[in-house]
Amino acid sequence: MSKRIKCTLSYDGTHFFGYQIQPGKRTVQGELEQALEQIHKGKAIRVTASGRTDAGVHAYGQVIHFDTFLSLSPEQWKKALNALLPDDIVIKDAQEAAPSFHARFSATAKEYRYKVRIAQERDVFLRHYCYHYPYPLDMEAMGRALRLIEGTHDFTSFCSAKTDVDDRVRTIYKADMTVRDDLLEFRFIGNGFLYNMVRIIVGTILEVGQGKRSVDSISSALAAKDRRFAGKTAPPQGLYLWKVYYDN
Hints:
23% of the residues lie in helices and 31% in strands. It is an alpha+beta fold. The protein folds into two domains: 3-97, Alpha-Beta Plaits (2-Layer Sandwich); 109-246, 2-Layer Sandwich (Alpha-Beta Plaits), CATH 3.30.70. Strand 2 (48-49) and strand 3 form a beta hairpin. Helix 3 packs antiparallel against helix 4 (197-209). The longest helix has 13 residues, at 197-209.
């Protein structure tokens, strides 16, 4: 009888062409399915994730599911996969899920974080894990701008022109930031996110902090529903899919 296995994993996105499988490219999904195929003695196993991440984007708490006829315990699944996966992917947790569980469609919310290093000098060892932004920032103005992002809005201005969904209304439950030493960390929790949405919001908020745009320009951009009214897209390396929320 088939069982559905749910796994939570972390990965360093630096050397991947994103999560989703692409012919001839190294991807997270490709590595996962290759490991599962080995465990299943050559049988192809399809993996479903909570969502895709782009090239260079990291995950602290991505969630996947797959179906299997093998009778391994959750702990055995965790050990078997980690023994076969490369060093830049790790399974943090495995458990048997209900047959109705779906990594993407059962999710009730997602949390993304974005890390910005605000020191003057570049750190060569952190260049793949945060965005270096060595400019003076008005943190109070940025905090006010972030609060305008919270709530239910049409985020057309804050998504890529490549976005292929018609309904661009999303609810952001929490948009805030913390500063510790020279690391600025943004946190966003919402019921869903559009393509490049977090990176465009971060790029726009940083422009507010630099004085390049007003706090009120956030409201104007939301109302305009036009990508040209928001700021630049922040680069991928600062972005982390932090957590996926499910009922129970």
